[in-house]
Amino acid sequence: MAQIEKIGDSDLVFQSKLDSFAKRKIKESREVTVTAETGTLVGRMSKDVVAVLLGVDGMIPKTLTITPKVNLENAWNRKIKYSGLSDAAAHKLPLLINAFEKTTRNPMTIKDFEFNVESALNELKNNFDFDKYGKAMGLDEARIQKLKQFAKTVSAKHLIPYLITEMLPGGVVTSKGEVSARNIKILDFLLSTLGPEYIDMVPAQGDEYLSLGGYQFTSLSIKNDSDGTSGPISKASKYVTKPNLSLPGSVYLLRGADHHVAAYLLALHHFSVTLKKVESSRLVEVDNFLKNYIQVVGYLGACHNQSQSANDFARYINGKSGAQIEFVRKSDKLSKRVVEHYNKSVDNAIAYKVYGPLSYKTVTPVKNTKDLK
Questions:
Q1: Which residues, 6+ apart, have CB-to-CB distance to 49 below 8 Å?
Q2: CB 261 within 8 A of CB 120
Q3: d(Cα 16, Cα 85) in Å, to the nearest integer?
Q4: pLDDT tens across 200-226, in order?
């Protein structure tokens, strides 16, 4: 077992183009170390992003000691190494890490996590003006009704596999290739040991922005700029009828349920785009799509990766006898990366039906060097 090496003096090395933010000191408040039993993860292989989040590169032992702040710092440094970090992100990252240290963390099983996500979605669904939003997106009454069907269909069981697609990698890392099942168990372990607050701070690895959380949102989708420019999530948030459910205008300020609300609103945006392109005579095919749990999750993942997928799906419905699961796999208009993203989301949905939500009995921390606060 090779432990991930700690960063000296908790420095984050920002490989930014601007030298003024090349190095920045993170203030130490306390080092919280959690020791936990790893349950059915014992013996599985950990590498890449998973290795950084768990703090172990190689075979996962029976007992694992995690220093969450150090692991997050390593995750951000891995991002910086491969993708760099923008000037704006370099400004805010130290504040983000310090805020995490002061956050009270609430470990829970993936079953409890699913319940919390579902509760957040139900509250949003009851406090969102679908009619006004649909009209603002250019939909007629028939398409607004289909949007409402989609809104009613999407649940925590759709969002969590989609979250796993965004946060955890694909690729065969076990002898049987059970990647999606392993990732569900890893998510459950992280939730049960460190809480959803840890998940909320995990950085995306493929861009230079301050992109973070289970869904890896960036400022491109969540923003309310002074010039009036808004991202698709922020635009949709304007139709939330309960003020305390409206999202902040920056991904930097997202906390807790905000992440799931944002994911749901982005899904509404993409499906509205799809509906605008679906021919009236083909709207009935939308019903078939909504009955296919696995395909809906695949759609969420593909559209998140590239918004063009929303248009591509509409073309598929218009040109085929039914909305089949291969709509992305057979497309010649989408990149290989999007196809892989779709396939990964489908695999996660299948695994989630079989393996989730799991409930670890041995993951609760057995030793804390300091209170987990």
A1: 75, 78, 167, 168, 169, 205
A2: yes
A3: 5
A4: 999 988 888 888 999 999 878 887 765
